[in-house]
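Notes continue from the previous slide.

Worked example: a multi-chain complex. Inputs as given:
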Amino acid sequence: MDYFAGVDIGSTMTKVVIVSDRIEVSLIGPTGPEHRKLANRVMEEALDKARLTFEDLTYIVATGYGRINVPFADRQITEITCHAKGLHSLLPSVKTVVDIGGQDSKGIKIVNGKVMNFVMNDKCAAGTGRFLEIIADSLGVPLEKIGEISLTAEKIAAVSSTCTVFAEQEIISRLASGEPIANLLAGIHDAVATRVSSLVKKLNVEADIAVTGGGAKNIGLVRALESKFGRALLVPPEPLITGALGAALMGKDIFAKYMAEGQKPTRSVNKLEEATFFE
Amino acid sequence: MAFVLGIDVGSGYSKAVVLEEGEIRSYAVIPSGGDYREAGRAAARAALEKLNLTFEDIARTVAAGYGGNMIDFADDTSTDISCHAAGVHYLFPSARTVMDVGAQYSRAIRLDDEGRIANFIMNEKCAGGSGKFLQVAARILGIKVSDIGELSLTARKAVEFTTGCAVFAESEAVSRISEGASPADILAGIHNAMASKIVTLVIRVGLTPDCAVTGGGAMDVGLVKAIGAELGTGVFVPDEPRITAALGASLIARDTLITS
């Protein structure tokens, strides 16, 4: 059996997926300041979980913001390509992907399983997971609860600030003037959804539409996005691993191509412990 | 001779200027806090007290700024852009481009030869080019905003920020600190990031020398230096850059007094 690994180092979370003819294992861990040691550790854990060894892997593809910091990868591929690939394998009917990550958000247009166009915001914290994280923090509500709470709002308390810094101030002063937390959270989710949907609408949006990334785990945000797009959105069962899954599948394709040409690709690193950077 | 009063209630500070015979007689700058109406009144009172004057001695009052329309004792209000233009033209008649770096806003104004507004652009949507960015920097480094400028001048190698966003820059600064970057190098990098945002505004209104920097941001020598470097030209800075719009409001009060 051939095994292919995909490693997606995002700004906030690191994900590893190992596939054969099915998904063997997927693992998610936080991205710390030390990407380089972290990739090795998360890979080790994933291999343990799958009861595989590093030598069992046929090909490894790294993706994401920190992809150059995966010393044992055989190839680096952009997260846009990997995202499209992974999502297409899970939800083949999807033509538009809305990805909301820890420090960026993007829209990807998929045609026949390939990236046709994409838009991305990684310049401004508004419309990213970071915005929600900061607001959750200043309201003293755990990040994983804000979505649920926002759905209990009686009305949406509109947030006039775009900038995260100003929105935080606005939220604090409105909380002080008696606005219920649920209404404020509804306003915040609406603000993120407005920002993200206006970014994605620069693409020619076609259904089906899927939401991925950490933002997709927030039900309040998914509902807010649904109201902006005017339709139900699809969410993969584990929305964080789409990029890593795509990376593993890209590795599988590369391997198949090599084999078709009568070659066998060589791994760049044979032992995980040898995979270190020399600066 | 008549005294006139100009008040500028900003998001960070409230300023008042008392003008007589076209000369600044006194001024005051106080934090705005949460009550703009009271802040505007308190700034005015502080400026008047320095001259042993009361509100009855003032022939005309013009208010401007973020909370300017809350100043109920003012005879009139004006826009802060007009007041800025008037203030800068009074201080530096040759200035044609003004960059105002306030607590929450940054803006660029282009003036014509008579000091009238030819064009302006304002950034109220993003903390990236505003004083708020300096407050964020001061907080993570545990220093006072007023100490940033001097400290930044001792930088050896400014940290290069990949972002102009105050939120992303905060995490970037924390990473650079953990890698050993000095506070001075971080601050110099933040000044460069801010200057680049501010100069983008200037380019959009059309850069015409001479240039002046006003607002609280102009008190930061490091920021002024970074803006000058980014523009490739020297910039004028008023002695008290925060009162420029209040001064302008007092000049408008004087001019409308004569014509009324």
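Summary box: The CA atoms of residues 60 and 73 of chain A lie 5 Å apart. Strands of chain A lie at 3-9, 13-19, 23-30, 57-63, 75-76, 96-100, 105-111, 114-121, 209-212.
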